[in-house]
Amino acid sequence: MTLPRSRPDAQGGGESGTPGGADEVLAAMADPTRRRLLEDLAARGGATATDLADGLPISRQAVVKHLAVLGRAGLVTARRQGREVRYLARPDGVAATARWMTALAADWDQRLAEIKSIAEALPAPSDQAAGERLVGGHDPDTERDQRDRDDLEAGDAERDADDREA
Amino acid sequence: MTTDRIEREIVINAPQDRVWAALTEAEHVAGWFGDAAEVDLRPGGKMVFGWTEFGDHHARVERVEPPGFFSYRWARPTSVEPAEGNSTLVEFTLVPEGTGTRLRVVETGFASLAASADERDTAVRENIEGWAAELGELQEYAQRYAA
């Protein structure tokens, strides 16, 4: 496994296994020329470096270098055909990385939903009415009144004790 | 097209300051990211996200601009400090919307995660070796062709 697990997500959630080389795939695809090459290869169903360079404002050598990066990421494969080397796109690497990114995004959806419920349940100290509404019928005033009554009763008991001693 | 970026958002029925508290106060962070959290809320401050199952992930606070922006960089491997090549950047933006808040999260830096040799998937290694062999053939072919 190239990357550590994406999830530290103890709440459960989607699959978060990281496909091997996802970082290389993303790095390979971060470059617009390489994305273009990959699209060209997919559209043509395979091509030589010379074919690819024809449609681009870069040299054949530069194309070969980009293809090597794509190859290391497992996105392109090279096949010798007679005197030519033909390059083919390998969509599996892209698909695995896309699935991984989708799982990471799903993890964030879940975390955002949890942040939402936490924030919406938080009482607002400066806004008593909102606080009462948000805690769902729990009335802090009732609780305080009860505490006050407890304190009073405790005080009475102490006084009773004092009276008995006196 | 795959990109090195995850961007998600949600609308929360609570004002910015409460969303800010949920995002930045350790007791609340533990409710949405890990089982236990430590937060030293200042730029450069240390954060720890603890998972009973996975171990501790360390993070560093990057920007703190209450109540609208908060970001941190967290190390993907456990028990190490976030650094170049092992971490991703998480950025939260909080924008008031009506009586609520629109919260957006952007996580970037997946492409810069460096793979260590022992973590590397065998399949990837084989792929690289296979590619090197093909490049060797290509070079041989090119030299012969040029001669």
Report a brief summary of the structure.
Chain A is mostly helical.
Oligomer: heterodimer
User: How do the helices and strands follow one another from N- to C-terminus of chain B?
Assistant: EHHEEEEEEH
Which series of helices and strands of chain A comes N to C? HHHHEEHHH
Number of helices of chain A: 7
Radius of gyration of chain A: 33 Å
Radius of gyration of chain B, whole Å:
21 Å
Number of strands of chain B: 7
- Unreliable spans of chain A: 1-18, 127-163
C-alpha termini separation of chain A: 80 Å
Tell me the major beta sheet of chain B: 7 strands, antiparallel
- Catalogue the unreliable spans of chain B: 115-139
Main sheet overview of chain A? 2 strands, antiparallel
Strand percentage of chain B lies at: 35-45%
Question: What structural class do you assign from the helix and strand content of chain B?
Answer: alpha+beta
**Spatial ordering of strands, largest sheet of chain B:** 1-7-6-5-4-3-2
Question: What's the helical proportion of residues of chain A?
Answer: 55-70%
Strand content of chain A: 5-15%
Give the strand tally of chain A.
2
Distance between the termini of chain B: 41 Å
Can you lay out the helices and strands and say which pair or pack?
The complex is a heterodimer of chains A (166) and B (147).
Chain A: H1 22-29, H2 32-44, H3 49-54, H4 60-72, E1 76-81, E2 84-89, H5 91-121, H6 128-134, H7 140-165
Antiparallel strand pairs in A: 1-2
Helix pairs in contact in A: 1-4, 2-4
Chain B: E1 5-12, H1 16-24, H2 26-32, E2 36-39, E3 46-51, E4 55-65, E5 69-75, E6 87-97, E7 100-108, H3 122-146
Antiparallel strand pairs in B: 1-7, 2-3, 3-4, 4-5, 5-6, 6-7
Helix pairs in contact in B: 1-2
